[in-house]
Amino acid sequence: MADTNPGKRPLSPHLTIYRPQMTSVSSIFVRITGNAMLVAGLMIVWWFVAAATGPDAFARANGVITSWFGDLVLLLSTWALWYHMFGGLRHLIWDAGYGLEIEEAETMGMIMIIASFAMTIVCVIIL
């Protein structure tokens, strides 16, 4: 379609002038954490396959998972799991028609962050 009015229409807001909101940032992080949990899932599957393959393969996989890198990935994946779960609960609340006001939505975003860190700490202490 031809633009009959080039240069005279206002531009839509761009990232340089747009202030990210709690709802948009938390939504983006829910998507990121959902994809990031695949890394931990693949590491655990690799560990199980290595256990079924033989002692040499298991020793190699177990060495990676119990290293500082493996511990870091599993810790971050635990946080991602909790954050993703609380994001899903937030969307269930929104689907029911509650918490749609801006202040309530931002409060629920902060609750997601705090609760995910708290539950990660609880999991680290228990496990």
**Which runs of at least 5 residues are low in confidence (pLDDT < 50)?**
none
Task: Write down the overall geometry.
Answer: elongated
Question: What is the CATH homology-level superfamily?
Answer: Fumarate reductase/succinate dehydrogenase, transmembrane subunit
In angstroms, what is the radius of gyration? 21 Å
Count of separate DSSP helical elements: 4
Describe it.
With 127 residues, this protein is mostly helical. It has one domain (22-126): Fumarate reductase/succinate dehydrogenase, transmembrane subunit (3 helical TM bundles of succinate and fumarate reductases). It is built from 4 helices and no strands. The chain has helices spanning 22-53, 55-65, 68-95, 102-126. Helix 1 packs antiparallel against helix 2 (55-65), helix 1 (22-53) crosses helix 3 and helix 3 (68-95) runs antiparallel to helix 4 (102-126). The longest helix is centred in the first third of the chain and has 32 residues, at 22-53. The chain is elongated and about 70 Å long. The termini are far apart. The mean pLDDT is 90.
Write the layout of secondary structure elements.
Layout: H1 22-53, H2 55-65, H3 68-95, H4 102-126
Helix pairs in contact: 1-2, 1-3, 3-4
Structure keywords:
127 residues; 3 helical TM bundles of succinate and fumarate reductases; 4 helices
Brief summary:
This protein has helices at 22-53, 55-65, 68-95, 102-126. With 127 residues, the protein is an all-alpha fold.
